[in-house]
Amino acid sequence: MKLSKNEKGLEMSEKQSFSEHTPKSPILDEPGVFQKKLWFKSKSFGWGWTPCSKEGWLVTIGFILAIFYIAIEYAETNPALFIAYMVSLIALLIFIAYKKGEKPHWSWGNK
Q1: Residue at 60 is within a domain
Q2: What integer is the mean pLDDT of 71-87?
Q3: What is the pTM of this model?
């Protein structure tokens, strides 16, 4: 069996691979190949997303709190600004869910 030295100076056989010495990460599918960590998953019924990680839940809770704040501050005093803020917040939530979630698709459950 032929032995060679790796970059750390350790001897290893030709049959041993780099992946045997590389610790796996929850984000890595294979060593060096990144897997997207999902914040939102597709809904079981319909179209859209639902939070599936702590980051997704934090974004969702932040969105709800921002909606309440904007409603209290601007709904009666400045309706045009209220609508502008609401549209902006909804667009931001959809953008984040699209970037950090599964590809959206229509679903009818487990069919």
Answers
A1: yes
A2: 93
A3: 0.61
